[in-house]
Write a structure and sequence with these properties.
- The relative contact order is 0.16.
- The protein has a seven-stranded mixed β-sheet, sandwiched between helices. Strands 7-8-6-11 form a four-stranded parallel β-sheet, with helices on both faces. Strands 9-10 form a two-stranded antiparallel sheet.
- The radius of gyration is 22 Å and the shape is elongated.
- The longest helix has 22 residues.
- 39% of the residues lie in helices and 17% in strands.
- The protein has two domains: 180 residues, Rossmann fold, CATH 3.40.50; 172 residues, 3-Layer(aba) Sandwich (Rossmann fold), CATH 3.40.50.
- It has 370 residues and is an alpha/beta fold.
- The structure holds 6-O-phosphono-beta-D-fructofuranose.
- The site of 6-O-phosphono-beta-D-fructofuranose has 12 residues, from loops.
Length: 370
């Protein structure tokens, strides 16, 4: 019998439990024992585990969060932590590890793999910013939550003739803002990939008012920033173990600027961790399940140092190096298409047959060459 360790690291995300369940259930056919490592890499430093039986994963498929806990612990912060991790892997008799996480967690997985530990990665993040995969699970759920919020904010904005600024997650990549902004019919979408000009934003909103639309919805990603100001807006400058500051607050400063320049009643909604909580969508449950089963197959084949990824409609292995090499930022074809709906994009850019990117904003989200 083989022993497989499973851990979830970084921010939680809808679909984590669906992956854990899939790993346990798929492993049963090989008669492997699955060891849940508590609270991400911290559990391997502290030696905290739980045995994940078939019974332990019963009923967890629709449950948000992660039954084994998570943390933003980085074992490479101190050499003695790495030593502990390696000692505990030996102590618990773990033959292979499945690490479910975003770029930080999988960055640690890559370093441990380079030290000889057999590891498989599974891509998780509501931000959808991992390279090598078209989508991460959790993203679809976050987009659904934000879309519903925008729908609700539309009716109140319209009734009060207000501008409502909706701040969403997205540190380096504005995937949630872009996709939920399109699906919710936002009147402006601001993302980290393109610094915004506040005058231009207000010009666009004013032109809506002149066209008789006396309300507007502005979706802004937490990592977006105005042209010329180098800094993103933070809640605290304290850094986590991977060097990230806590973002948040751009919505308020943006709303102040809009109100001042336009003299229109303006409100802010910060969706925050609501975007990460609760039950996963059907799409995320299926994707998470496919990833979990594929990870077990890679363990079975001894194909370590890989991350399972969605490319097109297939689940394929990609190297951990590739997955963590850089953030997958928003496909600008998609973002530029969204601009058509807030008065800045031109349809002809997409309809021109000589344009080699023709229609790509509709059919692709991940460009292998980028
Ligand atoms: O995991 C990614 C993310 O959702 C980012 O978009 C956000 O900045 C961060 O998590 C916030 O996480 P926490 O407040 O849990 O540390």
């Amino acid at each position: 019998m083989r022993k497989i360790g499973v851990l979830t690291g970084g921010g939680d995300c809808p679909g984590l439990n669906a992956v854990i369940r899939a790993v346990v259930r798929a492993s049963m056919q090989y008669d492997w024992e699955i060891i849940g490592i508590k609270n991400g890499w911290k559990g391997l430093i502290d030696g905290e585990i739980v045995i994940l039986t078939d019974y332990a994963v019963s009923g967890i498929l629709p449950k948000g969060g992660t039954i084994i806990g998570t943390s933003r612990t980085n074992p490479f912060k101190k050499p003695e932590y790495v030593q502990k991790v390696e000692e505990n892997i030996r102590r618990f008799g773990i033959d292979a590890l499945v690490a479910i996480g975003g770029d930080d967690t999988l960055g640690v997985a890559l370093k441990l793999h380079q030290r000889g530990i057999p590891i498989i990665g599974i891509p998780k993040t509501i931000d959808n910013d991992l390279s090598g995969t078209d989508y991460t699970f959790g993203f679809d759920t976050a987009v659904s939550i934000v879309t519903e919020a925008i729908d609700r904010l539309h009716t109140t904005a319209e009734s009060h003739h207000r501008v409502i600024v909706v701040e969403v997650m997205g540190r380096n990549a504005g995937w949630i803002a872009t996709v939920a902004g399109i699906s919710g019919g936002a009147d402006e979408i601001l993302i980290p990939e393109e610094a915004f000009n506040i005058e231009e934003v207000c010009r666009n909103l004013r032109s809506r008012y002149e066209r008789g639309k006396k309300f507007s919805i502005v979706v802004v990603a937490e990592g977006a920033k105005p042209i010329g100001e180098g800094m993103v807006v933070t809640q605290s400058d304290e850094k986590d173990e991977f060097g990230h500051v806590r973002l948040g607050g751009i919505g308020h400063s943006l709303a102040r600027e809009i109100e001042k320049r336009m003299n229109v009643d303006t409100r802010v909604t910060i969706l925050g961790h609501v975007q990460r909580g609760g039950t996963p969508t059907a799409h995320d449950r299926v994707l998470a399940t496919r990833f979990g089963v594929a990870a077990v197959e890679l363990v079975k084949n001894g194909d370590f140092g890989k991350m399972v990824a969605l490319q097109g409609d297939k689940i394929v292995p990609v190297s951990l190096e590739k997955a963590v090499s850089k953030s997958k930022t928003v496909n600008m074809d998609l973002y530029n298409m969204a601009k058509i709906f807030f008065g800045k994009g031109k349809v002809k850019d997409f309809a021109n047959p000589t344009n080699e990117n023709k229609y790509s904003q509709v059919y692709t989200t991940y460009d292998e060459k980028s």
